[in-house]
Records
---
Amino acid sequence: MLEKNDLNVKALSAEERERLCEEIRRKIIETVTVCGGHLSSNLGVVELTVGMFFVFDFPRDKVIWDVGHQCYAYKLLSGRYEKFHTLRQKDGLSGFPKRRESVYDCYDTGHAGNSVSAAIGLAKARDLKGESGRVIAVIGDGSFNNGLIYEALNGISVLDVRVLIILNDNDMSISPTVGGTHELLGQNARDEELKKKNIALIEQYGVQYVGVVNGNDLGEVTDALRRADELLQKSSVLLHIKTKKGMGYDFCEENPMQTHGVAPNGSGAEKEYSSVFGDTMLALARKDERVVAVTAAMTDALGLRPFFNAFPERAFDVSICEENAAVLCAAMAQGGLKPYYAIYSTFLQRAFDELIHDICAQDLPVTFCIDRGGISGADGETHQGVFDLSYLSIIPNMTIAVPKDGKELADMLEFSLTYPHPLAIRYPRSAKAAFGCKRAIEAGTFEYLTDKTDADLTVLAAGERAVSLAFRLREETGVPFDIVNARFVKPIDEALLGAIRSPRILTIEDNVRMGGLGDQIDRFYLNAGKEIYNFAYYDRFIPQGDVAGLQEEYGWDLEEIRACIQKGRK
Amino acid sequence: MLEKNDLNVKALSAEERERLCEEIRRKIIETVTVCGGHLSSNLGVVELTVGMFFVFDFPRDKVIWDVGHQCYAYKLLSGRYEKFHTLRQKDGLSGFPKRRESVYDCYDTGHAGNSVSAAIGLAKARDLKGESGRVIAVIGDGSFNNGLIYEALNGISVLDVRVLIILNDNDMSISPTVGGTHELLGQNARDEELKKKNIALIEQYGVQYVGVVNGNDLGEVTDALRRADELLQKSSVLLHIKTKKGMGYDFCEENPMQTHGVAPNGSGAEKEYSSVFGDTMLALARKDERVVAVTAAMTDALGLRPFFNAFPERAFDVSICEENAAVLCAAMAQGGLKPYYAIYSTFLQRAFDELIHDICAQDLPVTFCIDRGGISGADGETHQGVFDLSYLSIIPNMTIAVPKDGKELADMLEFSLTYPHPLAIRYPRSAKAAFGCKRAIEAGTFEYLTDKTDADLTVLAAGERAVSLAFRLREETGVPFDIVNARFVKPIDEALLGAIRSPRILTIEDNVRMGGLGDQIDRFYLNAGKEIYNFAYYDRFIPQGDVAGLQEEYGWDLEEIRACIQKGRK
């Protein structure tokens, strides 16, 4: 019945709704296996989603999905069944809520912990405008650890609004959820006395508590939604449900971490930077007992599992608390340790103030290992790692390294061990190339990857993708330009740059144009009479698609680059 | 006895310690009245500080002062009495903890909420290195609302360390503390049953609770520190004290908000942008009922008190929760309201991810009113507002306006009312000048402030300070260059720039060089054959001092600017 365009969940019998859940589950498995995407988290909330469509009135009622990776069933039930096979593909359905897709999506998400704040804001707008309708936030227990949630709970009484918060507790963020807050919530299901206390706590925020409910039992969760809805007449409500990540698909239930994000069939063969990172970290930790690793709920995706297994006492997964992780690193460095903070580029944005205020202002030797730098592809706008070279560059005392291949990542990590300042090492997901090292790693040094001929044109490329493109275009065009690996975006190699006699310079970087490597090079050659071309991404948010296609469409215009390369030649 | 270089608080009798408190209080009042600084918060923690010196062993024990504005008594007791008269002055003592000043300062602070994370990190370093010593975080109830605190509490069990958290509860952040968390804490003192529940909550984070104790009673607070110290043998402890902001100085006790930050004698006569902002907001709200104002515990300092009084139902102080405030604004804008988020430049760094992810990616019409932009002076490194033009510029969909005077701020706010995109309006504290408006506000338009003569040199100046400097230098040098008010840093006025026939361009902005206006102008004129000079701040953290002196020392080198201006002239 899922394929019916005018499917009205409210009109279905209990049995039909059960069958609908099965259909949805099948459709999700079928599609994600082909398109890639978040599998187990979506399978976990099928009954909740069907229950919400039965009890609530979308799109008049509004739901904010925290992170938003669990919205597939919601999309299937809100008129997007027919486009569902385009999930996560260029111009297809997003794997996250997107206002531009449907009126059913009221707030775009992607990063964790903002759903309750967003619900409060929407509810306040509703009230001030004299409108009606429920506002609901659905949030996992992993996100619930994020500091923003507490800021939001704190704000409920200030803004004096009524919202429904559904806490979807599956004992997992991407890695298993850790930390005191989770323990506190987890107790609810087990211990009656503690449960009462926790309820009292929640109630002091002006929020009534309903739970714990089996979120994979359609009848039970539907009843609980009705009960919560009644209470919502009076004040905000927290409905606490337990679900099983990967519910209904045996492989997922048994392997929730491996199936949190699933690659499309046939991919996944490349070697990844994360495994180079993980192996090297292990070697560094063996060599130097000051080495500690910190991550915010990303141990496996970042390649740190072997480190966590080998050095559990020096490995800290602080759950989705990017700011706390940054301050911990600052303080551990100040205390004489050598912290490595591994994180995805897009999530490091959360710790921007701590980068400035805690780490760089104190000039502390924290090393950031920034994965998923550059365009990351199918997750779209909220997950592209294209701002980091810019926002890191503006911070005094920060050094930024961009390896050209896996070997150079390892060399840079080795170099970091004795580097006494803040250091960011930034790399994309996949490592494909190996260029060989021409020059030892030293802060602020570039290296020639071709002979230095001071040809008509010198190309400065930062990172593997840019270096690869430079070599490819050199071969394709037959123009024998010099290629320099601009492996430190900050500081730049002024000695090498000053010695370039080529009249024309071209830069390529996997980052937005504003504030990146190009700006630094332009600044260096200001008034020097060179002709300069900078290739980086336009000042636009970059949607989902395949990496190479997006790169070309959003700034690495190959026609244009070729024209620049060939310009000097008739 | 305070003046004694080798004063040992541990050797003092109870009576002597009482007298010491009086001396400290007198010294603080005396000094702050002359140098400016935080008065009432420092007077509140005198007994706590003396008690800590009596019970603990500094500097072997380490204390992190959250925000750090309450560390004056600590400085007086840790060998800085003789330099105390240099407080907040150039090359003098900082008003905040600074590691470079003393081994007694173990972690620099300035922004709110990081103290518990920092304590945990230092404690972990201590444990891994097999060292000993207590680690203590002192935090006000205002900061305790910040999300970072909950991330930190959540991390105590993950990092498995013992720290002492002293919650200094004075019912005030800069404005009175608001919100559910504060209510929750406040209950402790009044309601025995609730107190038990709250204790149970804290204990679930693995933290023992001691309180509530009168923090202005030296005997009581000293006993409580001893008790907490005993419990600390077993696990982390939260010691909850109540203090009175401004304790011991009648004027402060009665006026804690006005005396949170005190200007030095004789200053304060200038008209401030905040009052222009406050007045204009009031007018906008009268005209358009969609207008709402959001602040993070800064109502008075930002000039919003009249708005809060006139429109309490449309004014939200969400306490020190900068991220929550940003998401609320995004959602309220999405819900059809017109939110204005007023904040200091340096604190907006905390909401950087939300700027990108919640506001600009969704292209929502939130207006940021960014006060204390540029060098802010006496508060030093942690409070300079010199990164904002850069970090805002890199975000797609963001428009950045920089008024040249108070009138233009009012005009820009008026303009914002119908502007359908994210907009940042950024200004320094004091407004001194009035230049007159030559051209109506329209996004991305500059204006000539002198006749357009296409002289040998055109100066592009962003913001009042830069524009004032341009006029001053024009008069001093007698060189008749053109002056353009570069009032939108993004987008820049490409039409106007393209029409400039001057062969030489000079930019001035009250921001770091990296990623600011200068970079945009350089980019625009790339390969155009113009000679360009950019004046902005160097890539260094800027310490305390007077604004004009710091500007010249950190980038606005007047000699150099004059030389550029006069270069064309023999």
Note: The first helix of chain A runs from residue 14 to 35.
---
Amino acid sequence: MSKKITIAIDAMGGENSPDKILNGINIFLKKNINTDDFFLNLFGDKDILEKKLKDLNISSKSLRIINTKSVVSDDETPLTAIKNSKDTSMWNCIKSQIDGTSDISLSAGNTGVLLVISRMILKMMPKVSKPALAGLWPNQKGLNVVLDLGANIECNENNLVDFAELGSALYKSLYPDNKPYVSLLNIGSEEIKGTETLKKTFKKLKSLSNENNFIFNGYIEGTNIMSGESNVIVTDGFTGNIALKTAEGTAKFITDNLKKTLTESIFSKISIIFSYFSLKKFKDKLDPRKYNGAIFLGLNGPVVKSHGSTDALGFYYSIDLCYKIVKGNLIKQITNNLNHLNNDN
Amino acid sequence: MSKKITIAIDAMGGENSPDKILNGINIFLKKNINTDDFFLNLFGDKDILEKKLKDLNISSKSLRIINTKSVVSDDETPLTAIKNSKDTSMWNCIKSQIDGTSDISLSAGNTGVLLVISRMILKMMPKVSKPALAGLWPNQKGLNVVLDLGANIECNENNLVDFAELGSALYKSLYPDNKPYVSLLNIGSEEIKGTETLKKTFKKLKSLSNENNFIFNGYIEGTNIMSGESNVIVTDGFTGNIALKTAEGTAKFITDNLKKTLTESIFSKISIIFSYFSLKKFKDKLDPRKYNGAIFLGLNGPVVKSHGSTDALGFYYSIDLCYKIVKGNLIKQITNNLNHLNNDN
């Protein structure tokens, strides 16, 4: 039997935990009932977790509980957390990667603390200048990787080039049959547009572009992030965070208005009956829970951050993401890409 | 009789011009058939324009044509345009503001050239550090002013404070009965978040906040640009351009998918019949043509840039915007706000 994919889960972080965590695990186990190539390490209060697992009738065949005494609170700042968090579910979850008992960590807890202690415990990969937070966005053809989403407010050209290598490694681990097409987010598509840092990054990415690592598609504007012309979008953490949240806000504005529209009159209510299945498909495609999970890249081990406010289904999708990332050999893909960078740069 | 609101229109700029320009003027004249407090100065080829006005049966009561020999092409760069554009419809359109024959200029032509020659001809207002391009976004309660949308890639705290004063003056000129609530776009709402420039701007805006000029609402995240909690959103031109275009791209992605959904089966097609009027209202609210027109602020005269690719209805909305801006005394509002800045800063 080959080595199992082992996922460390912080069972206590985020809203409505551990309930949503265990319900999410339940969905994952049911969907993977015929596979046994994975194992889950659950970090949290053993008494609570054991009782809830029993209530949900979850067998302990594919998981075990590692008892931890406390939880990182949402108010904790990254600075104080370094001192205070050694007994927490989050800390021990990530530490299990160093101990060799887990391949990847997943938490829905405090983002700032997770980034700081992940970096502290796992440490940066030797050739990476800055780690980055990557997210998944739907596009017209499937899915984009977008990074950085907020780990680094200010970035130079070397950081952005690293992000291109990290993001395309992630894309390859998730979609082994597709090629990563990298674009650099800018305010125009012409070479003369943008900041000096972007112009320098453009030149470097152009010279690094090749069939094995990534194909550089040039600049991309905000209008085309979701067009599907590229599947890895590179930007600094400030811009990426603004773009992500603006897209979320716009989607909410439109769907709120659509909902209001479709329920305001008796005729439009009748229309819902006729379009029920189509609208359900539409809603499913845009369901943010399907894209739940930001991936912290560039450390000696991958860490996935689930939205704190997601529900059981959203948490299930982030477990599934962890499974795919390890199965797709993310760390090996990153190492290969960074070697390429080192040789050519 | 009091002085009329005089709008200078570049009749030759943008796709499908002068046809869409004249059709847009036609809509404006029909909607304002009972008012005679405005006059339109049309700049372009007199022979072509006269013939088309006759074809459309537009009377010359509220407009006149000023003959110009050439047109700024879309390929022209701002640098060469300074030399080449003195005979163009765009140049003469803006110049009429200096000559005192127009109160505001409107063009659907080359954006880069428009910004450069507007600045050259009209010159910056004495107390403004950088002029800014402002746009209108729909929100849950009505409308936002967002600036800068791309005139200035890099901005310091004084530029951003100026944008707050300029944007709230614009908001007051469009909505004389409402108070402007200013927010600063950032990646978090806590005071400690963001770049050093944003932190310095935050402090300055907080100290300038008052009932007469604008009320400072603190930081805002991308998710809330369209929530309606603020109506003036301040950011640098790089971030603003990325946010605007990402919102446009997201809206397109969602509405394209919705369209596909509602036409994919016979049942969903029937549903459209029942929800026709509601969906039309939904579509109307999101119609980008209603928000057509970016306003170049901070010069000794306002200039409005229409989307080059809009149609007659979109161009009508930008004429209407010009009319409201002059009626709301934008330049006086800006002067008042800048005096406040000067006294308190």
Note: Chain A is about 45% helix and 15% strand.
